[in-house]
Write a structure and sequence with these properties.
It catalyses: Couples ATP hydrolysis with the unwinding of duplex DNA by translocating in the 3'-5' direction. Its EC number is 5.6.2.4. One of its GO terms (molecular function) is ATP binding. There is one protein chain. With 560 residues, the protein is an alpha/beta fold. Helices cover 44% and strands 14% of the residues. The protein has 24 helices and 17 strands. Helix 1 packs across helix 3, helix 17 crosses helix 21 and helix 22 crosses helix 23. The C terminus is likely disordered. The structure holds adenosine-5'-diphosphate (ADP) and magnesium ion.
Amino acid sequence: MTNATDLQTNSRIHELLKKHFGYDEFRPNQKEIIQNVLQGKDALAIMPTGGGKSLCFQLPALALNGTAIVISPLIALMKDQVDALQANGISAAFYNSSQASEEQQKIWDELQNGALKLLYVAPESLSLLQPLLNTIAISLFAIDEAHCISSWGHDFRPAYTRLGHLKQQFPKIPLIALTATADKATQADIMQQLRIPKAKKFITSFDRPNLYLDVRPGQNRLKQISSFLKNFRNESGIVYCLSRKSTETIAAKLNNSGYHAQAYHAGLSSEERNRIQDDFVNDRIPIIVATIAFGMGIDKSNVRWVIHYNMPKNIEGYYQEIGRSGRDGLDAHALLFYSFADVIQLRKFMQGTPTEAYQLAKLERMQQFAEALSCRRKALLNYFGEHLFEDCGNCDICTAPPEYFDGTLLAQKVCSAIYRLKGTEPLGMVLDVLRGAKNAAVYDKGYQHIKTYGAAKEVSWRDLQQYIIQMLNQGILEIRFHEKGRLLLTPLAEKILFENKKVQLAHILEADEKKKAVAEINKPAATSLFEKLKVLRAVLAKDMGVPAYVVFSDASLKDM
Ligand code: ADP
Ligand code: MG
């Protein structure tokens, strides 16, 4: 739909873009979001880090009458944005509890005089401004980092939950919520809590095709990092660790090996942190070894690599952190070390917290990503509700794929079972149904009568579980962990069920195990009964695509 008014706004917003921000073109979705706001409508914008969310409310703030109220969670972020706006000649200010009362009074006056185009406010300070808000002209509300409102998100901030009243108090003023990280359930939660049920959702692709996704076992990490860094002499990169202490020790070790690295964590003074950030952004320090305290709001385009020394606690965090590399669109390498010890450590942190169950479920998805046997990018994007139909060719799995077998039939059975269960049941029940389990949970629901009952009874419980996880990672299935972990079909599953699309599944043999097994096969005589059976298992899996288990009785164990 184009009419004269649209064309007018179109050229007007391009003009503002050039004049105030110096850019010639909009990034994906920016224009659509801006137009939506200018039409007075609410919006939920999901856009990856660095995608250009700020412009989506800054530009409308300039185009509309009145002051835009921007809710932002971090004082440092507010200050950076306000500095940048002022440098572009835009009247903007921030308001928070760290300011002296004279300063607050000055802002109060400016607001009353209508002198501000944008005011950034911490959610905790919004109530102080309440009496004033009713008396001034407000152009729009922007809720930045909106995932903070949801306890399902990964950065819950209680003060955000009080923002729900804004829409009630100002029903006619457009409200735009922005975030880089919200899975589907969090998106719904944000819309409900902000009371913008009719908000238009703008989801910008999360794909960052220039990032090489790489996962390696977390053994001899320092040695691995050392050889990794040989490919990146003098290039900027970030090592993320779990603890403050390890940032210090790893930075020290890298410095001893002739690299120039600096530790960064929340325990340092804010001057020190600012200095380090500045040195990094201006290429004076190439390597930062940091906790996750580092990076939010850092605008550096030439970060060539990110290493996760420890596994992040969820995919949102992982995505956000790797997203700090390769912002210039050139190749960058994201290396994740995966070790089970990290999983245990993270689980401990989560224990006893109010959102323990969600956190654990998210951790499990992170772990499944790290253990993926199919295209990592597919798995990553599937988590955010995006479906890649082809493998990416730019991850460790695509570069060195495991051995696959044609798993189409098995995948069809799984999809069919989930279809018949109407996407209401979690993994455990889907497994029980497919394996024809004779337990009360199945019988109570009458599932023994559905057509796929027992359709995969020849596959062991554990293997079937692994295959289903592979299907999840391939984007064929989706898990709703906020809804009892129920499994659902994605559009890809429909292609498999109804268009006979082929599915490749990887054999469930550990890589090392496989190598050993092949070596054993080549040996003239396998030594023990145990070894012989292991060889048999490998042959069954490798050559015939039949997953098999070696089961011992106590008696046979004594023989070995
Ligand atoms: P986000 O909040 O989504 O992480 P920002 O709003 O901080 O991202 O923007 C990231 C960077 O992209 C900033 O340096 C910003 O100036 C730049 N940017 C935003 N929009 C455009 C555009 N249309 N063209 C070029 N650069 C842009
Ligand atoms: Mg931002």
